[in-house]
Amino acid sequence: MNRKSYPFFIYSGLLNSEHYDKIGSALWLFLWLISSTTKEHVKDGVKWGLVLGHKPIKAREMADIFAVSEKTVRRWLESLEQHEYIKTVRAPYGLIMSVKHSKRFSQKGTLTRPEATDRTISADHRDKNVRREIDITKNHTAEEAINDIAAHFIRLRSAQEGRSVYPSPRDYQAIARIVSLGASAQEAIKWLGECFTAFEQRRTSSAETIKAFSYCAKFMEDRLNARIAGRTITTKKERNTIHDKTNDRADTGRPEKRKTSITGGQTGRIRRKPL
């Protein structure tokens, strides 16, 4: 599996013969569209996921991801839209796409099974529910983090290029991966600034610019790894300190036992007692 992959939600109801027959080989594109959802909104009671925040995407860009032809991608899109899995709108610079009944980001508590309220919940089940709610909240706030980081990245890129630029699908994927590794929006935005500053100091021509978020992703991973390593060292030091203090208490709490000498404490040559 690709080292840069990250988890996301989908409905288990898709796993049946009906959807298998309808989606067919377009499944991989459909999953990619769900994973690329960065915002959600409800219209006429239906939740729609906005793919890349409704940034126009060219068929060629999607074809490159799966190493297929544009014709294949268009056939997949036509099939998905025909069966009402997605909705597309043509724009001057590509397609604006939405995913129906998106579950890319789940609200707190939506994964709790209804039948759980009809029986006594054990302590183990309660712990699992708490962990589940924490994870769901984390995924929900990741939406805002991804959008904030993408917006800041584009501001920096636009300033560097001297024109308006927009994030690509690969940019969003790289941002989502950084967030999934544990970087907060505040950390990522700070590191973006440091990355662009370091780049400006090294570049020799105005034509040299940062073209993709993946350039800064490596910069951020190094800092994430350093942070994790720092925490590990601190934890080890704290453990050693606690261990040393425990040993000190053990040493001072027990007086040293005197050893009995077979010579009675005498040193040197010992005369033999007369019989």
Summarize the structure.
The protein is an alpha+beta fold. Helix content is 53%, strand content 9%. The protein is built from eight helices and four strands.
Can you list the strand order of the major beta sheet?
Answer: 1-2-4-3
Strand content: 5-15%
The number of helices is 8
Unreliable runs: 106-140
Oligomer: single chain
List the helices and strands and how they pair.
Elements: H1 17-23, H2 27-35, E1 37-43, E2 46-51, H3 59-66, H4 70-82, E3 86-91, E4 94-100, H5 123-161, H6 169-180, H7 185-202, H8 213-253
Antiparallel strand pairs: 1-2, 2-4, 3-4
Helix pairs in contact: 3-4, 5-6, 5-7, 6-8, 7-8
Protein name: Phage portal protein
Biased composition (Basic and acidic residues): 235-259
InterPro entries: WH_DNA-bd_sf
Could you explain how this protein is built, in words?
With 275 residues, this protein is an alpha+beta fold. It has two domains: 7-104, Orthogonal Bundle (Arc Repressor Mutant, subunit A); 105-110 and 125-247, no CATH class. Helices cover 53% and strands 9% of the residues. The protein contains eight helices and four strands, in the order ααββααββαααα. It has a four-stranded antiparallel β-sheet. β3 (86-91) and β4 form a beta hairpin. α5 (123-161) packs parallel to α7 and α7 packs across α8. The termini are far apart. The model is unreliable at 106-140 (pLDDT under 50). Residues 235-259 have a biased composition (Basic and acidic residues). Residues 235-275 are annotated as: Disordered. InterPro entries: WH_DNA-bd_sf.
